[in-house]
Amino acid sequence: MSYILNIETATKNCSVALAKEGKTIICKEIAEEGYSHAERLHVFIEEIVKEAGITFSDLAAIAVSQGPGSYTGLRIGVSAAKGLCYALGIPLIAIDTLQTLVSQITVSDGLIIPMIDARRMEVYSAVFDVNHQNKRETQAEIIDDNSFQGFEETLYFIGDCAEKCKSVLTKDNFVFLENIKYPSAKEMSRLSYDKYKISDTVDVAYFEPYYLKDFMITTSKK
Questions:
Q1: Which of 74, 134, 142, 169 lies at a C-alpha separation of 20 to 30 Å from 50?
Q2: Torsion over CA: 157, 161, 167, 169 (sign)
Q3: Residues 141-145: contacts with CB within 8 Å, 24+ apart?
Q4: Mutual orientation of helices 71-88 and 37-52 as an angle, nearest 10°?
Q5: C-alpha distances in angstroms, 102 versus 13, 58, 178, 183?
Q6: Which of 3, 39, 31, 32 is nearest to 15 (CA)?
């Protein structure tokens, strides 16, 4: 019986899901303007294990969102996942954050553009086809009037960037699906189980989140 605990903290959504054989059985999550991951994450983990009627020793693996996303959010999620894996002696599975976000949408045509806010007009984005296969590598890009102009097919934009991007990305083939905003741990269940079955894991000691760009520390002007 393969129980996998999935942890997603790359955005404002602090999300934890327990999966059995690749199917989500319990999920707890909350998306808040102020990041509460440090306070919520371990509580969610303990509550889920208790509600499922299992113990931590029943877990076969831990899956964590690898990024891109919030530096602080990723650090919190990865630190928790690595700590559990080390203590339990179980493997760590890394899941691409944008792949998790794309898993929430089903379309029959066009391309899917998942975007995660990277402040100001910058986003983390990639391009996926209708089968959720990656067609362009993840990158940090500044959105302007010329972004995605080379595409003639319908582009479905998902993620937490609609509010700031839809006034700039205005071509007729651009569609914003604003109901799909954050990646969720419940969408990681199948992805993590597929990786678990082929032993696609990462080194617990040396794994680092995929930040995509350097973390910048700013000094207060006060």
A1: 74
A2: negative
A3: 143/168, 143/169, 144/168
A4: 40
A5: 15, 29, 13, 8
A6: 31
Is residue 90 within 8 Å of 104, Cβ to Cβ?
Answer: no
Q: Phi, psi at residue 5, to the nearest 5°?
A: -95, 125
**Looking at residue 36, what is its pLDDT?**
83
Residues 6+ apart with CB under 8 A from 221: none
pTM: 0.92
What is the rounded CA–CA span in Å between residue 85 and residue 181? 29
Q: Which regions of the chain are under pLDDT 50?
A: 215-222
Beta pairing class for 13-20 and 23-31: antiparallel
Q: Quick one: DSSP state of residue 202?
A: B
Q: What is the pLDDT, as a whole number, of residue 215?
A: 44
95-113 pLDDT tens trace: 999 999 999 999 999 999 9
Contacts of 115 (CB under 8 A, 6+ apart): 123, 124, 125, 157, 158, 159, 160, 161, 165
Which tokens hold the place of 95? 């899941």
